[in-house]
Every structure is written in C-alpha cells, then in structure tokens.
Amino acid sequence: MQGQTLFFNKPVSVTAVATIAGPKEGEGPLKDYFDYILKDDILKQKSFEHAEIEMQRRVVKQLLNKAKITESETDAVFAGDLLDEIIGCNFAMREFEIPFFGLYNACATFGEALILGASMLQSGLMQKAVCTTTSHFATAERQYRFPLELGNQRSPLAQWTVTGAGACLLSAEGKRGIKITAATVGKVVDYGVSDANDMGAVMLPATLDTLDAHFRDTGRKPDYYDMIVTGDLGHAGGRLLLSMVKGKGYNLDENYTDCGILVYNREAQGVGQGGSGAGCSSLVFCAYLYKLMERGLKRKILLIPTGALLSKTSSLQGETIPAIAHAVSLEVI
Q1: Which end of the chain has the lower number of beta carbons within 10 A, N or C?
Q2: pLDDT tens-digit readout, 63-76
C-alpha cells in the first residue's frame, strides 16, 4: 500500500456480472444492458423492504447461475444496502450457504466490497468472491426523508434512489480479461453540509479527496483512464466536481461521467439531479461499464462509488453529513 492506494501485483479478475433493474430504471438509457427488468417494484412481496431483500437474493442466485458455480465453490459474499442494519443483504443471505461479510458505506458500499473482495483474493486467502449491493427508491425515501403517502414536493437538488441490484464475481484466476489493478481507500470527509436532499454537495468533498489521493499515489493523470465514473454525484454534483477538480490541477472534461447521470434520462423521467443509492454504482457498472470493457470499447475505467454517511438518527439530532468515496481501477489486461 502506498498512501491510501492498494496495488494488486496479481490483478483480480471480474469474471461475471448480474443485474436486476426496477421499472423506472428499465425505461432509462441503459435498458438494453440490464439482465432483468422488474415489472413492478414490490415483487409481490408484503412491503417494499421485503422487495429489496428479494432483489438481493435474486441477483446473487442469478450471478451464480450465469457463472456456472455452486454455493460451495464461492468463498464469500461481500454485500451491503441502505436499509436499517443492512437487513436487505442480511435477510437475503440466510437463503445461501456461503460465508458472508455485511458492509455499510452508504452509496459507496460497492466500492468497499470490491476493495475488500479483491484484497482477500490477492492475499491467496480466497479464490472466488461475490460483491453485490442493492437499493430501492421507496425504502430509501421513507427511511431518510418522508413517507411516500405524503407526496412531498422534491427539492431541486434532490436525487432519485435507484431501484436495482448489481453483483459481480471476482476470481483469483490469471486469465486475460477485466482486472482490478489498484484501489484507493477513501477517508471520511465532512464539510458541514446537513441537507439530506443535496447528496451531490455532501459527497463532492470526499470525491475530490479520493481523486487527489489516487492520482498522487499512482502518479497517474486523468487521461490514463478512458472513463472516470463517480457513483452518485448526479448532474449538480458532477458539474461542481468538474469545476473544483481543476483547482487541484486536474482536468476531467473529456472522460468524466457519473452513474447517477447515466442511469436515467433526466428530463423525460423527472428524476431531479439523477440517480443515487447503494445499487446505483453496482447496477451501472455490472450492466453497462463492464460490457463496454468486455467488448473492448473501453480498456481503463476508474470507478468511484460515493457515499453519504447519514442516518435518520443523526439527521434528527442535527448532525452534519459525513461522506466517503473509494476509487477502484479496472483495466482490460
């Protein structure tokens, strides 16, 4: 490790992916990339929370089927979500006989999962690991903001929590393909923002901090990557990032975008500043970015899932909202 960055001398392979998208996500620009699009967002369950648990269960099962591996061949699952005490993955994993690591870094959890999973495989302690996250618009809204029945007017800076799940299989096998070659572990950063509707502003400082650390530790410049993709800054946060990163001497104008921008058609779908949620970066990576790399259209991508570390308890107590961002370097080798 150098600074905040891990270098994988034996790059870890991303060998399979699986995705489940909600109905609204299935109407967006990436609809042709999803494995499965839900017809409704409650999945015939008794609550939206149970629907999210079912999405997590299904996407892991789907991944194992696509990869043609059994539960006994899977060393561990690294998973997380936004529900209280991460019940989405906790309850889903009771259906599997697989060792389980439950993770929480809010919307940055997918980055955390990739880093921890890749580290285990790099060390030789494991051979195959699943990394997955999920989120649901309805569960996130009523947990962090207001009951859906109230029909509250949304803030102009608000984002739309993605209903979806993405899962990928990491392998220590040395075959050519898409590899995790390095990862920068983020620090918790708090610039005093307390508006739970302005997630872009909350997560921007942590993103800047992690980007700066990644370029400093690796000696790379932004043009090393074909794409630099943040997780959940949305349109407003993304514009701020493009402007503020220049103050650190970097220019991202040519190769930057955000998962929350990619997943929706902002004007047609009425999603405010775009997507967010723990499932945002995992869904977009596993559905879209992975396939760009698989087809040889992009060879180097820096994925930076971004998370706002708030809770309903901290918000009600008047706390500010800390944030974190992790950067994962993926390359076709």
Answers
A1: N
A2: 999 999 999 999 99
pLDDT in tens, 179-207: 999 999 999 999 999 988 888 999 999 99
Of residues 327, 324, 308, the one with CA closest to residue 193: 308
pLDDT at 33: 98
Asked if 241 and 207 touch (Cβ cutoff 8 Å), the reply is yes
The token pair that represents 275 in the structure block: 């997507």
Q: Annotate 274-328 with DSSP letters as a single string.
A: -EESHHHHHHHIIIIIHHHHHTTS-SEEEEE-EEE---HHHHHTT----EEE-EE
The pLDDT, as a whole number, for residue 300 is: 98
pLDDT at 100: 98
Q: What is the DSSP string of 15-28?
A: EEEEEEE-TTGGGS
Give the pairing of strands 327-332 and 275-276.
unpaired
For the chain, list residues with pLDDT below 50: none
Half-sphere exposure (Cβ direction) of 49: Cα atoms closer than 13 Å: 10
The two tokens of residue 285 are 């990576």
Task: Give the pLDDT confidence score for residue 151 in this predicted structure.
Answer: 67
- Helix, strand or coil for residue 124? coil
Q: Please state, in angstroms and rounded to a whole number, the distance separating the CA atoms of residues 149 and 158.
A: 18
61 Cβ contact partners less than 8 Å away, ≥ 6 residues apart: none
